[in-house]
Amino acid sequence: MTPTALHLDAVTVRFAALTAVDRVSMTVRRGERWAVIGPNGAGKTTLFRTISGEVLPSSGRITLLDHDVTRKPAYRRAHRGLGRTYQITNLFSELSVVENVAIAALGRTRSRFRSWWPLRMERDVSRRAREALEQVHLAHRHDTPVAELSHGEQRHLEIAVALAADPAVLLLDEPAAGLSSSERMLMRRLITELPRELTVVLIEHDMNLALELVEHVVCMDNGETIATGSPDEIRANERVQAVYLKSD
Ligand SMILES: Nc1ncnc2c1ncn2[C@@H]1O[C@H](COP(=O)(O)OP(=O)(O)OP(=O)(O)O)[C@@H](O)[C@H]1O
Questions:
Q1: Where is the chain membrane-spanning (predicted)?
Q2: End residue of a domain, out of 166, 187, 218
Q3: Which domain holds residue 134?
């Protein structure tokens, strides 16, 4: 059986009296693509922040690539192979496209200091940065200042920044939020073309888009998992239809 990339066991997050995530469990195997969907306030972002280590769970257990990371800080999870993008851009707008990606690639380089280290590191960083830009179709914008990119290009660059750190598991936080319909098509293509060995979990408010991109879906409402299944099973699920109708 394919090894597990990410396992959540009854993960619960409480903010005072509010249970934002309520005993959510999921087993994501390496190379799988999953979406977490649900209406506003369902708990998707909190679940993501808990997986990435920005929020610690009140109870439950999180395993990343066979390591228990439940109480580990975000940077330790990143070193273990977890990458993520954010709904709110975290790019350096005054720097160029390649500089943004190179900073992320540099963070991943953990070579020990040796006399030839700077040269080797420079080669490694610029190769990884170039590859990441090619993966998101931004190689032609290499030297462009980020401030001059369109919104859609900036969303692509955010994915390149995450890829430059060479993650094994990538969390995409609403990758299509705020994009025009043509930009959404490009984003859909980009996600579809991500390397198959990369495990991808995405949050997406747009159920139709999310279901086109993944093979496995978790639908949350009020912090709870109300359905898990294939896109077809989720489309046909009456509870899912009810929560989406309620939120329209
Ligand atoms: N830091 C926090 N402190 C207190 N309550 C919070 C905090 N973060 C989230 N919440 C609450 O937890 C619940 C779940 O919020 P969350 O942002 O995870 O939902 P969501 O599914 O991502 O919603 P959206 O689609 O609107 O982003 C909401 O009621 C929200 O107000």
A1: none
A2: 166
A3: 90-166
C-alpha radius of gyration, the chain, whole number: 18
Query: Can you tell me the distance from the alpha carbon of 91 to that of 158, in angstroms, rounded to the nearest whole number?
Result: 7
Residues with CB under 6 A from ligand 1: 15, 18, 20, 38, 40-46, 205
Which atom from ligand 1 is nearest to the alpha carbon of 43?
A: 18
Ligand 1 pocket: which of 45, 222, 246 to mutate (most atoms within 8 A of CB): 45
Provide the domain count of the chain: 2
Same-domain check for residues 143 and 109: yes
- 168 contacts 65 by C-beta, under 8 angstroms: yes
pLDDT digits (tens, 9 = 90+) for 140-160: 998 999 999 999 999 999 999
Atom of ligand 1 nearest to the CA of 205: 25
Using the 3D structure, point to which of 116, 131, 166 is the last residue of a domain: 166
Q: Hey, what amino acid is at 32?
A: E
Atom 31 of ligand 1 has which residue's CA nearest to it?
A: 41
Instruction: For residue 205, name the pLDDT band (cuts at 50, 70, 90).
Output: confident
Same domain, 176 and 248: yes
CB-based contact 70:123 (threshold 8 Å): no
Total Cβ atoms within 10 A of residue 86 = 17
* Same domain for 174 and 144: no
